[in-house]
Amino acid sequence: MTSARPSIQERLYPQSTCFGCGQANGDGLQLKSYVANDGVVATFVPKDVHSNGMGSLNGGIIATILDCHSGAAVLLDSAGDDDELTDFWVTAGLELRYRLPTFLAHPCELHAHITERTDSSLLVSATLKSEGKVRVQAQSRWARLPQR
After folding, report:
1. What is the pLDDT along the chain (148 residues), one digit of tens a residue?
2. How far is CA 13 from CA 32, 110, 145, in A?
3. What is the CATH number of domain 8-144?
4. Are the beta carbons of 42 and 29 closer than 8 angstroms?
5. Is 108 exposed, middle or buried (0-12, 13-18, 19+ CB in 10 A)?
6. Measuring CA to CA, which residue among 11, 2, 12, 76 is closest to residue 40?
7. Deepest in the core among 10, 74, 81, 142, taking most CB within 10 A?
8. Kind and range of the H or E run holding 121
C-alpha cells in the first residue's frame, strides 16, 4: 500500500529501528500501516529473500509483520491528539494460526484491531490475507511499560 499520507509508523515513531516496522532500519521490512474504519491496514509484498525455501512466505517473517502491524494499532491507540505517544507497550504474547500457505507471488493484506482494553494490557486481533483468503490469524497481548 502506498499513500501520500504518512504511515502510523512514520508519524508516531519515525526513529524506530525495529526490523519489522522501523522506518529508520534500512535493512528491515519497513512495514507501513494506515488507519482504516475498523482498525489498521497494510500491504506487504513478499520478496524472494522472505522465502521458506519452498515458494511460501517464511513463518518467522509472517510472525514479524503481524506483530508489528498489531503494534501499529497499539501505537495509534496510545497517541494523543498531537500525535505524541502517551504510553509505551511491548508484546507480551503472540499466538498465530497458520491456516493456508502464503505464496511469495502475491501481496499480503494485513488488518488489525484492538479487541480488549484494560489499564495494563491490550488484546489485538490481526489477519493476513492473500488472494482473497485468510492465510494466518493472530492474537497478541500487549503490556504497558511502567513510566520512568
Report:
1. 455 789 999 999 999 999 999 999 999 999 999 999 999 999 999 999 999 999 999 999 999 999 999 999 999 988 877 788 878 899 999 999 999 999 999 999 999 999 999 989 999 999 999 999 999 999 999 999 987 6
2. 11, 19, 16
3. 3.10.129.10
4. no
5. buried
6. 76
7. 142
8. strand 121-130
Whole-model pTM: value is 0.93
